[in-house]
Amino acid sequence: MSNIQSKIIKKSDFLSVNITGFNSTYSHAIKLAEMIINHAGITINQTGEQTGLIIPYAIKLESIFEFYARAKIKKYIKESGIKDIRLDAYRNIFSSEILLNTTNNDDCYLIHNYIPDIAFQKYNPQTNEWNYIAVMEVKYQRSTSDVINTTRRHNTHQLLFYTLLLNVKRCGFIFPSEKNKNYEDIVEELIIHPGNAKGSKREYSEFHLGDTYDEQNDEIKKIIEFVRKL
């Protein structure tokens, strides 16, 4: 948000706002802002009750927390001088290019619907290539809440799909941490039915990203140690 300028908005400014074409996406938000600034859209009936139409417009905190986690991990890697570990480029469903540069993924029909939040890559000096080594899914949920219990099956299948897609051995979730709560380190071995394949064992862990500098660095250090171990 550093490039966004602060400006005092006057009522007359809305007369020149363009909400056509690409800007039509913001038409509801602009109309809501105009209603609030003009104190309009609310009427009071004879009984004193206030009535009016307010268009809901909210920030998607799931996406904000995902970007926050990515930014903090990338910053830690840079400040720590880590050269052989990096995050894969941010992907979205609107990309026209192949979303994930993996082997034989052209026929993967879920590729445009399921995209990993954070995929770690490790540099291989022998082949001069960056290879996927771990994948993390960022969830804006309390890891012990009823919400995570009701979505656990979907979340687990989503994470499993990423590990198979990228053929990585380590995976996990990143949750927001709760105040004054101590978390035990969780590392579990996932056994995936091997079929005709070999090496189906994978490791799963959970991490909790806090809002203070020390908490963040301690947890991100654990994440890096988890994803890079052989």
Mean pLDDT: 76
Radius of gyration: 23 Å
How many helices does DSSP assign?
4
Physical arrangement of strands within the biggest beta sheet: 3-4-5-6-8-7
Q: Characterize the largest beta sheet: strand count, sense, and whether it forms a barrel.
A: 6 strands, mixed
Give the distance, in angstroms, between the N- and C-terminal Cα atoms.
38 Å
Number of beta strands:
8
SSE succession:
HEEHEEEHEEEH
Task: Give an overview in words.
This protein has four helices and eight strands, in the order αββαβββαβββα. It is of the alpha/beta class and 230 residues long. The protein has a six-stranded mixed beta sheet with strand order 3-4-5-6-8-7, with helices on both faces. It has a two-stranded antiparallel ribbon with strand order 1-2. It is elongated. The two termini are 38 Å apart. The relative contact order is 0.11. Residues 102-111 have low confidence and may be disordered.
